[in-house]
């Protein structure tokens, strides 16, 4: 049902300006009803398939031990899983490893609004345990649930007090709660940062990179005392004009009216959000699957074969992946269309044209919140350079408060999940957070003092460079601040770093905050290669 105006869904920011609702088309509006009808009509067939799977899988049934019986059971399971509606998965993180000790983790809702809950993964630790940085992970509101970042949360839990934005499926929010658009999204973020009283660091994964940057820019412009200490933007579409991908090109080719006419529909009864206009999850999932249809067909064919062959491990991996992948949520029409228009069509943020509640979003106002950007070399959703563009926008931020990292051989999802994220990206984010955390940044100095009684040889030094000094920032992990430190220690050339031995590296590493960078970023190996190439 079209609405003539809206109001903000969060009271402390007042009502948003009234505007005409996005509407839809006569073709798209009945889609949700047709989908619900299809789901209902398939119910008996799914029940029969589920019963058939159990019957032909029962070890007491002699047919279950034949190849024909296994194939029938496998076919029943494939059909039932391919046609079911997947609900919101669980995070499933009951414990974590903290300082070598396995501790219990409890999910606790600490902040709540109609469209979002802030979940704290509370760790059961001793009262005298050292405080660790608060990290807010802003999950994407782009179809999948926040549980898609389960691996991200798991990797950060040992060293941080982790919070995550758990966005609500729009079909579950009654129409009486009002609308929710991009301005509301930014309002929610500002409210969360104020709730944390600025004692936090923010990690934005993909889509929320833009609203997180906008929220912090607005807070800085208003001299808000609760600005987060740092923000890490990962694979986000800050400037989609840089190295545009197929996803970016689609938005330009179709235009906003096409999306409004073809993907916006209305939530049907008996859902709590009945009559709310949404971009439904089942249409999003259709888009996800169609982009790599052959891959999904192959995956389900292999799943069938695993079931027939009795390969339980690979079959379970398939179930775990698709339980998450096929669980999708509806987005409010106003949020989806405003995001498409602002980020992908008008490029409002990098052009300096983006506003929030009628006020300009000026990233040059950011001076207190440190910035780290992370990109994947093979990212086909947010191309290389799109996230890094944030550094150009944050022109007033000092060099010691900015870091960029490009991870080799990972795609979009590898930026925030998987083995390379755990081994290469997460430790760098942790170092970045520690270097911008008051009270923890000084901790390594105590370690240096403990070593003072042990004579450690100093690294080879020069009073001045032999010829032109090398640009040490060409070493991944070395920024202007660390280059200055190295120069002060008499190190100006790649060959000096390449020749550092163990004790020399230890002595130099103790002067950095936090320590461990030389080995983790492989400075010696990088310097050796650079010295040879030059």
UniProtKB/TrEMBL annotation:
Residues 444-471, 509-534 are annotated as: Disordered. InterPro entries: AB_hydrolase_fold, PHA/PHB_synthase, PHB_depo_C, PHB_depoly_PhaZ. Residues 235-435 form the PHB de-polymerase C-terminal domain. It comes from the Bacteria. Residues 460-471 have a biased composition (Basic and acidic residues). NCBIfam families: PHB_depoly_PhaZ. This is Polyhydroxyalkanoate depolymerase. The gene is phaZ.
